[in-house]
Design goal:
The complex is a heterodimer of chains A (351) and B (288). Chain A has 351 residues and is α+β, with helices and mostly antiparallel strands. Chain A is 44% helix and 8% strand. Chain A has 15 helices and six strands. Chain A has a four-stranded antiparallel sheet. A two-stranded parallel sheet of chain A has the order 2-3. Chain A is elongated and about 85 Å long. The two termini of chain A are 37 Å apart. Chain B has 288 residues and is of the alpha/beta class. Chain B has one domain: Divalent-metal-dependent TIM barrel enzymes (TIM Barrel, Alpha-Beta Barrel), CATH 3.20.20. Helix content of chain B is 39%, strand content 18%. Chain B is built from ten helices and twelve strands. An eight-stranded parallel beta barrel of chain B has the order 1-2-3-4-7-8-9-12, surrounded by four helices. A two-stranded antiparallel sheet of chain B has the order 5-6. Classes of the chains: A alpha+beta (351), B alpha/beta (288). The interface between A and B is large, with 71 and 70 residues.
């Protein structure tokens, strides 16, 4: 998957791989089926039975019609709020969960709540509501799993689903488009999920994976080309500033997260690494996502340039920060060539 | 499903064309469609997959829209919600419709969230006069922005509200009348809801204003015995094709589209299943 590397030993080495190459989460009007999960194995069993089976129809206790509240029209807004509260509850709906759960984990619907819906013989109201209740969480977990496949691998499915459940409860989706809901998981890791095993590593891995989604959707404005770079008179270089393209992100990490992610993609089954500083650029060329490991001087120089520092002071700062690496400036042209080729800089240069 | 059909009004479909038989465009088929340019009548896109993104999906849509007619089908308009209408979303729909030269724009008779929160599901409407008037006003607002009629699809539903005072087909008919909208009739959803709520699909078909139906959806579903779920999985089952036959007989020609969203097979398999519609359309024509 590696692009042909630049001969110079000090050149950055990009690696391909991002959500552009996998099936990115796609919206549809279908309802996620409850069938594959333990929570709803009961439905699978029901499907195998004759439709007239009394056991299939009445395995869960159903409130008697007389116990339901009168069906006076409570108004559209009230109905929608009441419905939404039920289907987005983090608790399991009492009366349709096949497994035992503590009382605190179950939502028992009141007669008033149940009375908002029509009772029918073929399926209790609570099981009908469970179709929506299950689909709500399943759809969002699918979305998050698509954005964070490596985080899911590290945590395992059960822990990942539990993390997602926290995210969904505390950071519900508020926009019409799911393309950016994944940001909620990263924010939750950064601010909320301190009990997560390997929290620091997971958060950095989530940062890297979310960057890939961000650049996947980012606007690809015209970028600075190699020809334009070569045409710049030497006397102008010192005062030049470079604006970042919207399709590039630079990250410094305490863990070698990009190496881990690549090893996972290469099916090497890597162990969770020990802390070791790293830096990675995530960027898009055309419609392909790339990652490029950066040395500390490279990362520092890019960060300074992206912050608006002119080239000469940025290079001076690099030299000051790494006095034990003389000759770094000699590599800068090689770095720049790779960065420009990779579309790091937007076409809005100034002096 | 053998009762004589009700007399159909002459279909005008807003003067919109019968696009033929199409399939829902899905990303797993992008490469095949671009490279093989298969002989298919048209594609329907999920509008939301091409909104708020500037990457590969838009570029691919641009290429496909150059070669095939496109209709837009959204899942986030939330036309029935009591939250304020998201005008940014509606304007983005309009921009996308212009870009891909959409033949029409559709969404669902549903709401997706309230209190500023989005469930991303197609939630059922209480079928009341208040909900009807509320939805009709919002449809008009959307149509004013889009500058074209909005098509609304009947959703699959799993629960009914005790407050409902009319059938879904009566609600849709009145909505068309009050707002001027059209219908995307999903015959799989009619089947799923009929199983879940115990009505006769023929009653539904007899109650639909056929001059407003511009498109049909067919799809597979999951039959759990006690109820069905609209999973869009597998080939279209026979009872759904039978409803399409009866519906097409009434519509006198509306476009047909197959939705397949779970365990999606290769393009050829999906297209072949969609083309099974020809047999039922022919049967409808011969019976008409």
């Amino acid at each position: 998957m590696s692009r042909k590397k630049t001969p110079a030993a000090s050149a950055p080495a990009p690696t391909a791989g991002g959500p552009a190459e996998i099936l990115h989460f796609e919206r549809a009007s279908a309802t996620p089926s409850a069938e594959p999960t333990a929570q709803t194995r009961r439905h699978t069993a029901a499907a195998a039975k004759p439709r007239s089976s009394a056991a299939a129809r009445h395995r869960t206790a159903r409130p008697a019609a007389a116990a339901m509240a009168p069906a006076a029209d409570p108004g559209l807004g009230h109905l929608q709020r009441a419905f939404h509260v039920i289907i987005t509850s983090p608790k399991r709906l009492s009366g349709c969960c096949g497994e035992a759960a503590h009382d605190g984990e179950l939502l028992t619907l009141s007669p008033q709540q149940l009375g908002l819906f029509k009772a029918a013989d073929n399926l209790p109201v609570v099981e009908r509501l469970e179709v929506y209740h299950y689909a709500y969480k399943a759809r969002l977990i699918d979305c998050l799993a698509d954005d964070y496949p490596t985080v899911k691998h590290v945590l395992g499915s059960e822990a990942f689903d539990a993390l997602c459940a926290e995210v969904i409860e505390h950071r519900p989706s508020r926009g019409p488009n799911l393309n950016f809901y994944g940001r909620a998981l990263l924010d939750h890791c950064r601010e909320g999920a301190r009990r997560l095993p390997g929290h620091a590593f997971i958060t950095e891995l989530a940062t890297l994976e979310w960057s890939m989604t961000e650049v996947f959707h980012a606007e690809a404005a015209p970028t600075f080309s190699l020809e334009q770079l070569r045409a710049i008179p030497m006397e102008q270089w010192a005062a030049m500033t470079f604006a970042p393209s919207q399709t590039v992100r630079i990250h410094r990490f305490a863990y070698p997260v990009n190496a881990y992610l690549q090893a996972h993609r290469d099916e090497q089954e890597p162990a969770v690494p020990r802390a070791k500083a790293s830096a990675t650029a995530v960027y898009r060329m055309g419609f392909k996502i790339w990652r490029m490991d950066l040395t500390p001087p490279m990362a520092g120089l890019l960060e300074a340039l992206f912050a608006g520092t002119a080239l000469a002071p940025a290079l001076d700062a690099m030299g000051t920060a790494y006095p034990d690496q003389p000759g770094l400036e000699a590599s800068v042209m090689t770095w720049f060539s790779e960065w420009v080729r990779s579309g790091f800089f937007a076409l809005q240069i100034g002096t | 499903m053998t009762r004589p059909r009700a007399a159909a009004k002459p279909g005008n479909r807003f003067g919109l064309p019968n696009l033929g038989i199409g399939i829902g465009l899905r990303s797993v088929h992008y490469q095949h469609v671009l490279e093989q340019q298969p002989g298919i009548d048209w594609f329907e896109i999920i509008s939301d997959n091409y909104m708020q993104t500037s990457g590969r999906p838009m570029s691919i849509l641009d290429q496909i829209a150059e070669r095939y007619p496109i209709a837009m089908h959204g899942v986030s308009l939330s036309i029935g919600s009591t939250d304020p209408l998201n005008l940014t979303y509606v304007n983005d729909l309009k921009t996308l419709s212009r870009r891909c030269k959409a033949q029409w724009v559709s969404d669902h008779l549903c709401w997706t969230g309230v209190m500023g929160r989005n469930s991303h599901d197609l939630l059922p409407m209480p079928l009341t006069e208040e909900a009807l008037e509320h939805t009709a006003q919002r449809v008009k607002q959307v149509q004013d922005i889009l500058e074209m009629p909005l098509m609304l699809e009947n959703p699959s539903t799993y629960v009914e509200f005790a407050a409902s005072t009319m059938t879904e087909w009566d609600f849709l008919s009145a909505l068309c009348e009050r707002s001027g909208c059209g219908l995307l009739l999903d015959v799989n959803n009619i089947y799923v809801s009929s199983r879940n709520h115990g009505f006769d699909p023929i009653d539904y078909l007899d109650g639909v204003p056929w001059d407003r139906v511009v498109q049909f959806h067919v799809a597979g579903h999951t039959d759990n015995g006690t109820h069905c779920i609209d999973t869009h999985i597998g080939p279209v089952p026979s009872p759904v094709w039978e409803i399409l036959r009866q519906a097409h007989q009434r519509s006198l020609g509306a476009a047909v589209l197959l939705e397949w969203d779970a365990d999606i097979p290769g393009f050829g398999v999906v297209h072949k299943d969609a083309l099974r519609a020809r047999r039922f359309i022919a049967a409808a024509k011969s019976a008409a």
